[in-house]
Structure formats: structure tokens, C-alpha cells
From TrEMBL:
Name of a matching Pfam family: DUF386
InterPro entries named in the record: NanQ/TabA/YiaL, NanQ/TabA/YiaL_sf
The protein's name: DUF386 domain-containing protein
Origin: domain of life: Bacteria
UniProt cross-references to Gene3D superfamilies, sorted A to Z: YhcH/YjgK/YiaL
GO cellular component, one term: cytosol
């Protein structure tokens, strides 16, 4: 997992061949006014979605991991809490892996929580189980999915 400011995103473009294009997309958007919806960037291998949903309590957050995509998550405005735990320490899957949605949910609980604020991003690799959307009131979220 990586958490940093969007101002530092150039430091991470060498970590994956599609990161440069992903961060270019993010930085080209007016994050405060970006509309809810799906945004194709580079076919099925790089795409984004924006949601605006009510935040949830930490104990109700979906604790998830992906096998074939890296998430770059951005909080366009305000802040949200996110839970995290290494996948190697998660022992209680909640159902089977959903290949269509590339997600496995877990009953385990996060080891740590952090705030993701406007102007920041988090990168979650397949080994990062994460519980996003923790907060009160509406939480606006931009997620760029990067095919491994």
C-alpha cells in the first residue's frame, strides 16, 4: 500500500507501466466537480469510476482485495477513513472470489486505519486488503483500476 499526495504522484509512475496514464487522467480532472460514473482510459486494462455514497461505520465497511487489478483511490473532496491489513494475515474469506468483479471479501478486521484527504491518493495492490468508504455523510470517491 502507498499513501501520498497527488503532488508527488510522479514519484510512482515507474512502479507500473500504466501508472503514468492513470495519474495523467486523475490530474486532468476537476476532482471537486467530477461527475459520478464510469470513465474509460485505456480499454479494459485501465479505467476509472466515480461514486458518491454515504459513508459507513468502520464495522460495516466492506473489507476487500483484488487479484488482477491495482486500485488507485482518490478522495476528491473532504476525507474518508480506510482500513488496511496485509492479505497474508487475513484468514477468513467471506464467500468465494468473484472473478467477474475481481474481488474477494473478508470477515477479518483491519489492523490499521488512516485518513485519505482531498489531494491525496492510496494505491492498493492485490496483497492489500482494504476497507474504504468509512465516514459520515456522503463520501465521493474516484477509483482507477489498473490491470496487472
Amino acid at each position: 500500500m502507498i499513501v501520498d499526495s497527488l503532488a508527488n504522484s510522479d514519484k510512482y509512475v515507474s512502479l507500473h507501466p500504466r501508472f503514468a496514464k492513470a495519474f495523467e487522467f486523475i490530474k486532468s480532472q476537476n476532482l471537486e466537480s467530477i461527475e459520478v460514473g464510469k470513465y474509460p482510459i485505456d480499454g479494459a486494462e485501465l479505467h476509472a469510476s466515480v461514486s458518491n455514497k454515504d459513508g459507513v461505520k468502520a464495522e460495516d465497511a466492506k473489507f476487500e482485495a483484488h487479484n488482477h487489478f491495482i486500485d488507485i483511490q482518490v478522495c476528491p473532496a473532504g476525507s474518508e477513513q480506510i482500513g488496511w491489513k496485509p492479505r497474508s494475515k487475513c484468514v477468513d474469506p467471506k464467500g468465494d472470489y468473484n472473478a467477474e468483479k475481481d474481488v474477494t471479501f473478508f470477515n477479518d478486521k483491519p489492523d490499521t486505519y488512516f485518513s485519505l484527504n482531498a489531494g491525496q491518493f492510496a494505491i492498493f495492490y492485490p496483497e492489500d486488503v482494504h476497507a474504504p468508504m468509512i465516514g459520515e455523510g456522503p463520501v465521493k470517491k474516484l477509483v482507477v483500476k489498473v490491470k496487472i
